[in-house]
Design a protein that fits this description.
alpha+beta, two-stranded antiparallel sheet, 4 strands, 153 residues
Length: 153
Amino acid sequence: MDEKRKTSISLPVPAENLCHKHYAFVMANLAFYLRYLRRHTPSRQKLRTHNDGSEGIFIVQVYWDMETYGSLHTLAFSLRWSVSHLIFVMLCLAEEGIVPGAEHLEAEDRGMFFSNYDMKVKMWGAEGYIYTEFLRFSSSKPPSVTTAGNAKR
């Protein structure tokens, strides 16, 4: 069993109610949201996107196992988003009523469910770094979509 580790995310103050309302739901359905958001094209040719803090930010203490932590960081890194922004986008999707299921996924993703994060290091030293991060998908896990209204943090 992978123990959970404490970290934090920063969300805009206006999103505090979204967090209380939808955080547990988003985390329970993280695999669906990860696959839904992978529609965005990865890019290293832009600056990282962070949450707008013009109205202030609030810090949320979260506890994630390493699989969840790795999954969120892999997608956020590929999109040039902060993990906090990624979570904020997922909360907004939940608020809009977008409950990722097969109807929201691309045809090639239907029937496949998130399984694992992994990383392979080819070179790590004074000459440079070469490594690959990836998310593995498998059809071994059944969907576990719950209703958004019942989510509590």
